[in-house]
Amino acid sequence: MLFASSIVRQLRKIAGRDAVLSAREDLMLYEYDGGVQRALPQAVVFPQTTEQVARIVKLAGKEGVPIVPRGAGTGLSGGAIARKGGIILGFSRMNKILEVDVGNQRAIVQPGVVNLDLSHAVAKHGLYFAPDPSSQKACTIGGNVAENSGGPHTLAYGVTVNHVTGLEVVLPDGRVVQFGGKPAESPGYDLTGFFVGSEGTLGIATAITVKLMRLPESVATLLAIFDSIDAAAQTVVALTSEGVTAAALELLDGWTLRTVEEAMHAGYPMDSGAVLLIELEGMREAVDDQKAAVIAVCNRLAREVRVAKDESERQRLWAGRKNAFGAVGRISPSYYVQDGVIPRTRVPDTLRRIEEIAKKYSLTIGNIFHAGDGNLHPLILFDSRDPAQMERTLAAGKEILAYCISVGGSITGEHGVGMEKSEILPLMFTPSDLDVMQRLHDVFNPACLLNPQKIFPMARSCRETNAAAHPAAGLAFTQGGPA
Amino acid sequence: MSTAATTASVFDELAAIVGPRNLSDEVAELITFDIQGTQSAIRVSPASAEEVAAILRVVAARGLAVAVSGGFTQQHIGNPPERAEVLLDTSRLVALDHYDPGDLTFGVGAGATVASSEQRLAEHGQFLPLDIAERERATIGGLLATNTSAPLRHGYGGLRDYCIGIHFVTGDGMVAKGGGRVVKNVAGFDLMKLMIGSFGTLGVITGASFKVAPRPRQTATFVCEFASLPEAIGFRDRIMASALTPIRFEIVSPRAMEYVAAHSDARDPDHYHPEAPVAAPDTSWSIVLTAAGSDAVLARYRRELSAARELTGSAEHDFWNGQLDFHANVAARHRNAMLMQLSVPARAVEAALAGAEHAAVEQNAMCAALGRAALGSLTVAVIPLSVDPPSAMQYANAASAIRASLPPDGSAYVLRCPIEAKAHFDVWGSTPTDRSTMLAVKRALDPAEILNRGRFLL
Amino acid sequence: MPLSIEPAPHASCFSAHDRPTWELYSTCVHCGLCLQQCPTYRVLGTEMESPRGRIYQVMLADEGRLPIGDAFVTHIDRCLGCLACQTACPSGVPYGHIVERARAQIEQRYHRPWLASWVRHFVYAGLLGDYKKLARWARRLRWYQHSWLARAVRASGLLKLFGLAPMEALAPQVSQAFSFEDFGAMFPARGERRGRVALLAGCVGSVAFDPLNRATIRVLQANGLEVIMPEGQGCCGALHAHAGRREEARTLARNNIRAFEQWSCDAIVTNAAGCGSAMKDYVDLLAGSSEDSETAASAQEFVKKVRDVTEYLAELGVRPPAHPLALRATYQDPCHLAHAQRIRSAPRELLRAAGVELVEMQHPDYCCGSAGVYNVVEVELAGQILEEKMDDVAATSVNLLVTANTGCMLQLRSGVARRGLPMQVKHVIEVLDEAY
After folding, report:
1. What CATH number should be reported for the domain holding residue C353?
2. Please, which residues have CB within 8 angstroms of residue B314's CB and are 6 or more apart in sequence?
3. Chain centre distance of CA B371
4. Nearest Cβ partner of C66 from A25, A33, A74?
5. Do B111 and B193 touch, CB atoms closer than 8 A?
6. Using one digit for the tens of pLDDT, what is the confidence trace for A419-458?
7. Which residues does the UniProt record annotate as the domain 4Fe-4S ferredoxin-type (chain C) (predicted)?
8. Can you give the residue range of the structural domain that contains C60?
């Protein structure tokens, strides 16, 4: 594709001289994100206003150049990669909190606002923004909206879509439109809800109205220690069916917890088979009740249940979970993290199955996951310099996802489809399902200039324009990155 | 355009799809399925998504229109149909069926009634956290299409928060689904959100999956009364800023309480009969909240809400049933009443309720209102005084006065009012969401515009 | 991070000497958790100016895809070396080691403009390498600072004209006496003797923070410690290592190891976080050089003893002060204490022991922009970073800003002056000294 220097000139005119990158040595720094996909953009522009975004989008439309929005580039499925080249819209300069409306428990933010910065900014009002992806120190709310991000505490409070009530969106034709507002809902189609999680393929959110939640009065963090992973898995099932509504319920298997413990000294016993990290939040009395219930259920199969005595012990227990991926990274620089989802009753079977798969392919697979909502993150360790092992790793990953689907689950719980899983989306949806989704895609983005070749399989996405595409290699790799 | 000949041949084609026993063109029967004065020529009851698709293809090919019906509990909402030659009845759409109590997930066909679903969930102490009226008739598909709001929404979220998968058929007969059966899933577009609240104009919902909840073992309801609206709102603000996490959190206007409280022997105040005693008019605003949890949790509520009247057991049950019947009670007693559904941010609740009171008085009517105090989802009844028959303009004026009291992103649509009045004003009102995009979405999924034609806001 | 879109590997742009190796940079999984912790990313908002981006540039250079040219040098130079990214990194990427080696490559492979080269040589090899020369220049500067000339120059606006005004504001006020004069001296413990420590006076510390060094000695004495200032000690080499001048840093390291070896002591203490973190890294520094095989063992011995003065006192437990201060203060974590040495609670404990009520600012561990000589080299950027910091400082509305590193003190003082805040900037040890 030809990329005229006149486009760069026009971008400079719109956003300012220092807001456009076009030198190759700069562009190479925008060929990656948190995953492993790579593609070089032809320009990067940092708009500061909605109006600039609209003008850039119009320009791209006129020139027939793809445009890819990017927050902090922490995504794990290649959502912010310019797969077909074109312009990357970087939102690092649209990072203002536009309004904090304490009375209505709402905030309006620009897409580049960092997730945790919003919570920090409203903490003085006793409020916070609930979605808490592990990358929340860096990831942006615009990116959260695109990917419908989750996190450990989504078990109780839901994912991003449950916390967004309104959007200002720049459509691929350059129009600026409003979906929803501060009220919980409005008559008409819920385009806000539909837009969240569309991975930047429908439009570009330039102002986001989010719900702010009240900080809980009381928090309790428990560590249940098990001799076997099966006992931990059975306990997840029991807790769920007992109706314990934990704020977070995380599982680490024996191999993972030992790796984590060595690096982080979080206080996980080295000789245990698995641990569950359980957090309860809410009214003091309710937390006390839940704590008693959790301890009772865990004690059926657990070796021991510990309750964090103070904030520092709580932080220590969480540090283990939050840095688990990194701790694994210390012993094996390359690992492939999957993001499957299964019904919670299938946790024990699935863990057994993953063990079999690990044996079958002679790989080490660590298990760490959001057990409370059945969102697995198996970590498959490999040496990237050994092609045979890489192939086995891919095959094992695919087999795990196939198993998730076979028990009624999903191929992605929070990382998104992006480039990584676009080729396996048809395992979950029929051609007719995908046709309907694509029709809706084309309502917004008919020329496929906005984040092209994401979500849908290559053979489907904008057939007439995919000649210049990079080859898609089935299930692509995602190496590393926290979840 | 829809001549008898056309419908006759369509009848045969539809019969071939669903079998002769599952459709009817009996006028005597169809008259009972009247939708705001419009009767269909054929009523057809498909049993699968594929049958729905086949029906819609036939209807579209013949240039006819379809009305979609569940339990007929919400057909009074929206404009009268522009036309609806075929009535697609979803009652046989019960094929989808999964329930995994351990996973707290549940899926049913669109035709399943809320009551039948509740019954199955109750066996495992679980429930769909949605307390609505007419559960025996209301269907799952209808709930989703109308995005019914209920008091429990405060504690458990709305349908958009716990519907995890949806099956539907587009206007041109494409069978589609979104989401799945697991509680966390970001694969593909979120079609659940699009279908919820679309009033059957984007597709015929054939089934859905939900995240269900364990039923709380113990609850208590607290009624707190205040002399004025500002006092009630001040109390609401204190609760919102407190650590209390009620599962229901309602505000009830003085007059609304008359339609909520268990039926007394006293006669209706607006029924002229001087000899019979009149119930003393209630003048206080109420904040009503339900707490769920252990004795310790309830004790905390008692401590913090010391001035409240507490309802438990059957009194509590009766109160909430009365609350759910508010709409029906108003409609039953006042044929001419107008009910509106308001959605505003929390801070605008006070102005909206005050505005509604004022608008009603201006139009020589009474106002009764209740709804989610913190979420700002309110039901307002404008009840014309029975002295003289109301004119269409009174409804139009009341609606526009109420809308004028809302912030720009607030909305108020008509749930019910006399059909004759609907021609004189916009029953849907404004919405903050871009109309042209909504229209483009509508055209993508229902290109021939055959679904619930003319009913919705587009 | 071995996968890249360009298939055929080119020859590496790096030389074998002091090279950032695949083993070092491949631990980065480019998750991006470091981005917001990086001061340059927060201000400039581009990947090139982020830790992840810098590591990627190192990888690109090693793969031969990116030359060691102006772009590479600009972005690697702009790193403050605050190491906040290392704290944030879940994978334990040794970012500091990667960047120092990248800078070593720049020194070897890139020709800076002659003026910059000359200044760098004069400062690093000249002033900081030779305490006699340093003392001479410090006296000249002291004369200038107290002379009519300084007043005249300031009044003339000449500095503003040449854009040097902020630099002059940052220059340390040269002390009346220099710590060199006490080299070889021994200061007896007061009260019951609890041990003996050797103090590193530091280069800038000796000429600009002599009062702080004296306060440090008093506080150590008051805590029952005998203090020695070994003769022959020199600059720690931190600035040289950060600038990629690793050979000079090694010479200084060997010199210090020799100087401190002469004395038996329980700990080698410093009141400058930057010096502490550099000395704790001597093993890695010297591992890169073959001639250091015999020094390796003594380097390990040396490193084992290095302690920040706050760290050592907190470990030991400070004696209750005679005159506890009833003050409210906020504490700024020096990067090389919090991120490089992971010391956060010790200085706070000492402040509390001195009777200070701590009012935490937002992000106390965000860099102030000082970063060695960064505030002199990257005046504008350092100024923007300082502005961000001063917002957080001002929000605490206290009158005392405490930190534990000399460089940070200079930078924070200029920030306080620029805002006209009614606030004093002190070292933890100075506060503790007042309480004794």
Report:
1. 3.40.50
2. none
3. 12
4. A25
5. no
6. 989 999 999 999 999 999 999 999 999 999 999 999 999 8
7. 18-49, 69-101
8. 22-109
